[in-house]
Amino acid sequence: MNKRYTATLFAILAAALYAINVPLSKALLQHVAPTMMAAFLYLGAGGGLLLYSLLCRAAGRQAIKEPLTRKELPYTIAMVLLDVAAPILLMLGIARTTSASVSLLNNFEIVATSLIALLIFKEVISPRLWVAIGLVTLASMLLGFEGFEGFRFNTGSILVLCACVCWGFENNCTKKLSSKSSIEIVTIKGCFSGLGSLLIALCLGEPFPALKWMGAVLLLGFVAYGLSINFYILAQKELGAAKTSAYYSIAPFLGVAFSMLVLRERPGAQFYLALGVMAVSTFIMMKDTIALQHMHQHAHVHTHAHRHGDIVHSHEHQHVHTHTHVHDGDAQLHQHTHAQLPDHEHPHPSGTVPDPL
Q1: For residue 153, what are the β-bridge partners?
Q2: Is the entire prediction scored with pTM above 0.70?
Q3: At 304, is the secondary structure helix, strand, or coil?
Q4: Under a CB-based contact definition with an 8 Å cutoff, are residues 256 and 275 in contact?
Q5: What residues contact residue 59 under an 8 Å CB cut-off, 6+ apart?
Q6: What's the confidence (pLDDT) of residue 159?
Q7: Cα 169 to Cα 84: distance, rounded to the nearest angstrom
Q8: What is the pLDDT, as a whole number, of residue 60?
């Protein structure tokens, strides 16, 4: 029980650490150019976990299990390229709209991930998830809409939604690597995507930030991405994927709270309407995720009457020379047909399914 309490604390801590990303990034964007910001956030995450791996190796521990192979190279390259584009779009969006709105708009990533999985990878979406997708889309439109005059949309919100679409593709690519080491995946994504963004920033003529701001962004990347991912993995080992994902879904709402607390943002009535719609959709997605895990697999011990000597028997038996006993060493694994939820359970740049270490 104590382990489960600790794991629950880790899951909530992972959500809280990731939630500080948007409001603190918006504050730091006053001192760091957007593309430079994206670069050093990812370098902070990748470099921090690389240092962690080296320290583990020095201590005689193996931090990376199931390393990537040449077979996964196409998905790895796609993952890195998408992780170059997505954070740049996100930083540009944060600079042009409120961080509270950005925190909520991040939920659109689930919509993008699900639809891409359906249309390209032919996965099935449950009716409950379709309802949640519709609600998230409605809330995103409310957040992005600026008025009926000319049907204008907020540029910052559009950029954030484009970032979510990039991450939706990236999530489906990373799913192909889900059996590999999450530490190695994050290290590769952080370091190479960060370097790619840095190269683009230099081509755009963006200046290097002052050392103190560079250090602040690297630290934010390590905490909001690197440590958040680590705590997520620790929680998942004890709680399982569905429950950890459910706890982690509070991150956007914590991001809203931090935005109002740190940046003193006071959104209008339109925001609160979208907040209510997004809260309902998040609840539906949590229920769908937990229900899916329960339907996907459950093992149990059962009793039934049967005759010894039968080669094949079912739960229907004749009442001739029968007796009952418990099969306690041969639990049955029951599989059921169900709608499949595209995996998406962790902060960026972790990937879609961090495997327990």
Answers
A1: 145
A2: yes
A3: strand
A4: yes
A5: none
A6: 94
A7: 13
A8: 78
Beta strands in the chain (DSSP E): 145-147, 152-153, 298-300, 303-306, 323-326, 332-334
Q: Contact at 8 Å (CB) between 342 and 113? A: yes
Give the pLDDT confidence score for residue 165 in this predicted structure.
Answer: 94
Give the residue ranges of the chain where pLDDT is below 50.
149-151, 296-306, 309-314, 316-322, 324, 326-345, 349-357
CA-CA-CA-CA dihedral for 14, 16, 19, 24, to nearest 10? -110
What is the DSSP secondary-structure string of 149-178? Answer: GGGEE-HHHHHHHHHHHHHHHHHHHHHTTT
* Tens digit of each residue's pLDDT (9 = 90 or more) over 210-220: 999 999 999 99
Radius of gyration of the chain (CA): 23
Which amino acid is residue 83, in one-letter code?
A: D
User: What single string gives the DSSP state of each residue in 237-252?
Assistant: HHH-HHHHHHHHTTHH
Distance CA 266, CA 331 (A): 55
Distance CA 304, CA 176 (A): 41
Residues 30 and 49: their CA atoms lie apart, in Å, by 27
Residue 319's alpha-carbon distances to 307, 308, 311, 313, 326, in angstroms, are 9, 13, 17, 13, 18
Work out the burial of residue 290: count CB atoms within 10 Å of its CB; fewer than 13 is exposed, 13-18 middle, 19 or more buried: middle
Specify the residue for token string 């029980």. 1
Residue matched to tokens 């290290």: 187
Distance CA 115, CA 133 (A): 9
Q: Decide if 29 contacts 37 (C-beta within 8 A).
A: yes
Tokens standing for residue 35 = 């593309």
Query: Cα–Cα–Cα angle for 329, 332, 334, nearest 5°?
Result: 160
pLDDT value, residue 237:
72
- The structure tokens listed for 199 are 């190269």
Coil vs helix vs strand at 349: coil
